[in-house]
Amino acid sequence: MDALRRARALLHDADRVVVLTGAGISAESGVPTFRGPEGLWRRHRPEELATPEAFRRDPCLVWEWYAWRRSIVAGCAPNDGHRALARLALLDRPRTTLVTQNVDGLHHRAAVEVAGPDAGRALPLEVHGAIHRDRCSRCGARTPAVAEVSTSSPEALPRCHCGGLLRPDVVWFGEALDAEVLGAAFEAAAEASVCLVVGTSALVYPAASIPEITLGAGGVVIEVNTDATPLTPWASVSLRGTATSLVPALAEAPSSG
Ligand code: NAD
Ligand code: ZN
After folding, report:
1. Residue 86 pLDDT more than 80?
2. Ligand 1: which of 21, 26, 33 to mutate, most ligand atoms within 8 Å of CB?
3. For residue 237, is pLDDT > 70?
4. Residue 30 CA: which ligand is closest?
5. Would residue 128 show up in a list of annotated catalytic residues for this protein?
6. Which pairing describes strands 129-136 and 166-170: parallel, antiparallel, or unpaired?
7. Do residues 95 and 116 touch, judged by C-beta distance below 8 A?
8. How far apart are the first and last CA of the chain?
9. What is the average pLDDT value for the chain, to the nearest integer?
10. Which of 107, 128, 132, 161 is catalytic?
11. Is the CB of 200 under 6 A from ligand 1?
12. SS3 assignment, position 238
């Protein structure tokens, strides 16, 4: 049996599935990954900008970078990989939980595209937050993203009604993840007999522990990635190729070929 058919059978024989996605699934929608050649912005590495220290040191620079990333995401649309995962999550069996490290909102948009008002079950757990929301760096209040961010000076940056500086509602390197969202993702990982990992280098913890939890509970991992990752040796099936070509083929029911 070839690898794709084996993976498809594993996925559809499972009662519960957890899916973990990373920047690779959105790469073909035009959202650059952090580690790919387009990850750099004005010669800054994302690891230098996506930190609380960077925001304290130079909030205008960090906001400029997010304004640029927001403009990229606004010009992008979900792809066949996002849509196939939304359809999978709408099935009764396997019962599927989508967990994403992406902040771009494309899984959410795909779910709404595919299922309209019934999108609920196909909405992902966004463990690293969402780029289209703001959060107060002082009181934590969440608000929809400010439409136009003026970055000319710290005084011009958007502020909360409490006076605190607003920031994008994403989790930065060195910050804790939302305990409730992460807890739900870990629970889904422990209950799943299959963890499907798509387009992530599987390096950033604690999200990277999701496949480890499924493995530890006796489940298996299926990986979709253009390259080998630290997770590859642990995967029962590792499919090498793009998310848009492989995920739709994998998610469709085995009887369809
Ligand atoms: P990453 O950049 O470290 O890894 C991307 C992975 O995707 C790589 O392993 C690469 O081989 C693979 N890949 C690239 N193109 C692919 C394709 N077309 N099909 C399948 N696989 C492909 O990203 P990461 O592992 O998600 O971790 C980086 C962190 O950066 C995460 O926390 C994430 O939240 C954040 N991030 C998010 C976005 C986004 O929201 N779209 C973009 C960049 C980074
Ligand atoms: Zn506030």
Report:
1. yes
2. 33
3. yes
4. 1
5. yes
6. antiparallel
7. no
8. 13
9. 95
10. 128
11. yes
12. strand
Closest residue by CA, ligand 1 atom 26: 22
Q: How many angstroms separate the CA atoms of 211 and 191, rounded? A: 11
* Residue 87 CB–ligand 1 contact under 6 Å: no
Distance CA 85, CA 247 (A): 7
Can you name the residues that pair with 205 across neighbouring β-strands?
Answer: none
Ligand 1 within 6 A of CB of 229 = yes
* pLDDT 10s digits, 148-195: 999 999 999 999 999 999 999 999 999 999 999 999 999 999 999 999
Residue type for 116, please?
Answer: G
Q: Is 115 in contact with 90 (CB distance < 8 Å)?
A: yes
Closest CA to 225 of 114, 122, 81, 126: 81
Is any atom of ligand 1 closer than 6 Å to the C-beta of 226?
Answer: yes
Q: Is 21 in the pocket of ligand 1 (CB under 6 A)?
A: no
Residue with tokens 């800054």: 44
For ligand 1, atom 16, which residue shows the shortest CA distance?
Answer: 24
